[in-house]
């Protein structure tokens, strides 16, 4: 009996060891998927930080000479202010002038990059317009009232912010494109023109646009025009990512005014931009992200202007 009593602590120890071993193996990642059916894998968290203007861009600026001190001004020749366009294709024609210091929109065929104009129909993501010698076509525009906003941009999509760079017109489309038609890709192909019948050369710059109409925008009121980021960011372009916008009729706090720009990435806490210049955010993780920009008044309330002062875009990051 005494012998067995001596063995008892040993068998408890053995049993404990066996239990420990069992629980360890249950915690093994290979088994976790079989046993832990109710566990949701938490998504990795993203911590974004504002970083200074990247060296890569400083180098580009240096290589461009004086171009970044240019004061390019635009005039919208077409569509005319309050003009009426018959058919679904809107030809955008612009005049570029001002103190250009060598600034000229053009896509370098080798790199696919270059100075360009950001063209914004209603409050859709901008389209890049490179060769001003021929019109840019907005295709499949639906009937109704629309707005067009344009401003010059650099190859890295940072806008020029001088007086006269930004222009905006309202116009109306009669007839128009098929609103039920899905947006097609910007393959550069000219889609069937549903009104004029005359097919355009496929080389013409343009975009089949999504169905949208103008907001009730008052150009005399403060207006925040969302520019970047948009679309897909790949490889070395995926971090950092620049936020850039155009402001009319509103001066930010840090520039001696009273307005602020609030930005929210995904479901993160709101952050603020108090100077009208681009910011670069670093720390993006792969996947889709939402970027929201809003113009706030001195009381921290969103400034209403046709719905354009609060804009969300989905971007995707592929590192
Ligand atoms: Cu751009």
Structural class: mainly beta
Percent of residues in helical segments? 10-25%
Q: Give Rg in angstroms.
A: 27 Å
- Number-wise, the strands total 18
Low-confidence stretches: 10-36, 182-198
Residue-averaged pLDDT: 86
- How far apart the termini lie comes to 70 Å
Shape label: globular
Q: What fraction of the residues are assigned to beta strands by DSSP?
A: 35-45%
What's the tally of helices? 3
Largest sheet: 5 strands, mixed
- Strand order, main sheet: write it out: 3-9-8-5-6
Q: Which kinds of small molecule does this entry bind, naming each only once? A: copper (II) ion
Q: Give the SSE string.
A: HHEHEEEEEEEEEEEEEEEEE
Please sum up the structure shown:
With 319 residues, this protein is mostly beta strands. Helix content is 13%, strand content 35%.
Furnish the topology, listing elements before pairings:
Layout: H1 2-26, H2 29-35, E1 49-51, H3 55-63, E2 71-78, E3 84-86, E4 90-99, E5 116-121, E6 127-129, E7 136-139, E8 142-153, E9 167-176, E10 206-208, E11 223-228, E12 231-234, E13 241-248, E14 260-265, E15 271-273, E16 279-282, E17 287-296, E18 310-318
Parallel strand pairs: 3-9, 7-10, 12-18
Antiparallel strand pairs: 1-16, 2-4, 4-7, 5-6, 5-8, 8-9, 11-13, 13-16, 14-15, 14-17, 17-18
This protein binds copper (II) ion.
Copper (II) ion binds next to strand 5.
Task: Write a structural description.
By secondary structure, the chain is mainly β. The chain is built from 3 helices and 18 strands. It has helices spanning 2-26, 29-35, 55-63; strands at residues 49-51, 71-78, 84-86, 90-99, 116-121, 127-129, 136-139, 142-153, 167-176, 206-208, 223-228, 231-234, 241-248, 260-265, 271-273, 279-282, 287-296, 310-318. The strands form 4 sheets. It has a 5-stranded mixed sheet, with no helix packed on it. The protein has a 5-stranded mixed sheet with strand order 12-18-17-14-15, with no helix packed on it. Strand 5 and strand 6 form a beta hairpin. The longest helix has 25 residues, at 2-26. It is globular, with a radius of gyration of 27 Å. The termini are far apart.
């Amino acid at each position: 009996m005494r012998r067995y009593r001596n063995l008892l602590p040993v068998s408890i120890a053995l049993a404990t060891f066996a239990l420990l071993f069992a629980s360890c193996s249950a915690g093994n990642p290979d088994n976790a998927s079989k046993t832990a059916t109710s566990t949701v894998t938490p998504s990795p968290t993203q911590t974004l930080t504002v970083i200074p203007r990247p060296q890569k861009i400083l180098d580009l600026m240096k290589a461009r000479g004086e171009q970044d001190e240019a004061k390019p001004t635009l005039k919208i020749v077409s569509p005319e202010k309050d003009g009426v366009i018959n058919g679904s294709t809107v030809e955008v024609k612009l005049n570029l002038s001002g103190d250009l210091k060598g600034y000229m929109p053009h896509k370098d065929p080798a790199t696919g990059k270059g100075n360009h104009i950001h063209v914004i129909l209603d409050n859709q993501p901008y389209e890049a317009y490179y060769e001003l010698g021929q019109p840019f076509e907005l295709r499949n525009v639906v009937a109704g009232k629309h707005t067009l906003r344009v401003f010059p941009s650099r190859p890295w999509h940072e806008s020029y912010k001088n007086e006269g760079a930004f222009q905006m017109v309202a116009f109306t489309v009669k007839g128009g494109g098929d609103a039920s038609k899905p947006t097609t890709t910007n393959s550069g192909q000219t889609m069937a023109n549903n009104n004029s019948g005359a097919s355009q050369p496929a080389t013409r710059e343009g975009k089949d646009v999504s169905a949208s109409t103008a907001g009730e925008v008052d150009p005399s009121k403060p207006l925040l025009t969302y520019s970047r980021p948009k679309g897909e960011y790949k490889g070395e372009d995926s971090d950092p990512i620049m936020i850039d916008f155009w402001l009319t009729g509103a001066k930010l706090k840090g520039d001696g005014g009273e307005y602020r720009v609030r930005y929210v990435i995904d479901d993160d806490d709101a952050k603020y931009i108090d100077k009208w210049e681009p910011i670069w955010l670093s720390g993006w993780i792969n996947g889709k992200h939402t970027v929201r920009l809003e113009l706030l008044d001195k009381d921290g309330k969103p400034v209403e202007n046709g719905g354009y002062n609060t804009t969300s875009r989905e971007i995707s990051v592929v590192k």
